[in-house]
Design brief:
With 318 residues, the protein is of the alpha/beta class. The protein is 42% helix and 16% strand. The protein has a single domain, classed as TIM Barrel, CATH 3.20.20.
């Protein structure tokens, strides 16, 4: 296992995401086309702990609490788990106090505090950042993060916390070979210079960069990824997948491991959605891949040549 630092805390170099866990609004069935419950996922969780993957990312919006509830059952008797969850300022949550939402998350997760607590979008940076302050001072939030924020919004959040003697610990944005806005706009560089950990989500583009799906084996229709990565898009990805496969062959790994290794090489902590035991083993294998700079350049060139740059429907331009 490789590790990195979250302020004074050591964390795994790869975090595991639970967006696919459970069903319901914004749950696994709506986004990924699956129906995974605790009996399906417990072997996956246990394998992850065996390998030292202890950082788990979730959110109350994933299945309206379903993901948090499943994770909460699994970590009930475990120690040294790093729990990452979120407040999402949309819809009903806009009318709710952040404290109330956090309390409900902590109950579902069965923990007394959130190791990392994120403001999930920049709906009102000043308002929601300020609401973090008393919760951080009471120890209910150990590390504060912002997600889907642009560079100026990140700086605003950091300044608000600094005035109270607190720190912004982390930024979590969409970042992959196909979507590098956080690099191009200077966000990742700012994070490195300010000792803020950058967590990259959708590094595998919800499975499109694993090479397992293609024009002859497309994603399920009527799901988020099935619409975003339709047959035409999958055809455009063939050149990139070929390059990833060739580089992967030299390391004895598959394209998915190359995508993860690239994200780690770029100085980020990828959040990888985990639904199978083999996904855990793949993440571990990716940490043994040390890409050469020539390979990074080759991968990024092949990615640009696809012409694909797909934001999530929840994302704004960086």
């Amino acid at each position: 296992m490789r590790y990195t630092k979250l302020k004074d805390k050591e964390i795994p170099a790869i975090a595991f995401g639970t967006w696919s866990w459970g069903t319901g609004f914004m749950g696994g069935n709506r986004i990924f086309g699956n129906d995974l419950q605790k009996d399906d996922l417990l072997p996956v969780f246990n394998r992850a702990l065996q390998h030292g993957f202890t950082l788990w990312d979730t959110a109350p919006i994933y299945g309206l609490g379903a993901s948090e509830s499943i994770l909460g059952e699994f970590i009930m008797h475990e120690s040294d788990i790093v729990v990452s969850t979120k407040f999402t300022p949309i819809g009903y949550q806009l009318k709710s106090k952040l404290r109330k939402t956090l309390d409900k998350s902590l109950i579902r997760l069965g923990v007394s505090s959130a190791d990392i607590y994120w403001v999930h979008n920049p709906k009102d940076v000043v308002k929601w950042t300020k609401e973090l302050i008393p919760l951080m001072k009471r120890g209910l939030i150990k590390h504060a993060g912002v997600s889907n924020h642009n560079l100026e919004e990140i700086k605003v959040a950091a300044r608000i916390l600094e005035k109270e003697g607190l720190q912004l610990s982390a930024v979590q944005n969409h970042y992959s070979l196909l979507y590098r806005a956080s690099e191009e706009t200077g966000i990742i560089d700012w994070c490195h210079r300010n000792n803020v950990v950058f967590f990259s989500y959708m590094t595998l583009e919800q499975g499109a960069l694993t090479g397992r799906n293609n024009a002859n084996n497309p994603f399920k229709k009527n799901t988020r990824r099935g619409k975003a990565f339709n047959i035409d898009v999958l055809k455009k990805l063939e050149g990139l997948i070929k390059t990833m496969t060739e580089i992967g062959d030299s390391y004895g790994v598959e394209p998915a491991q190359i995508a993860m290794a690239w994200a780690v090489t770029k100085g980020t902590v990828p959040i990888i959605g985990i639904t199978k035991v083999s996904h855990v083993d793949g993440a571990l294998a990716s940490l043994d891949v040390n890409l050469k700079q020539t390979e990074v350049i080759r991968l990024e060139k092949a990615a640009r040549e696809t012409g694909i740059n797909i934001k999530g429907f929840w994302e704004k331009s960086m």
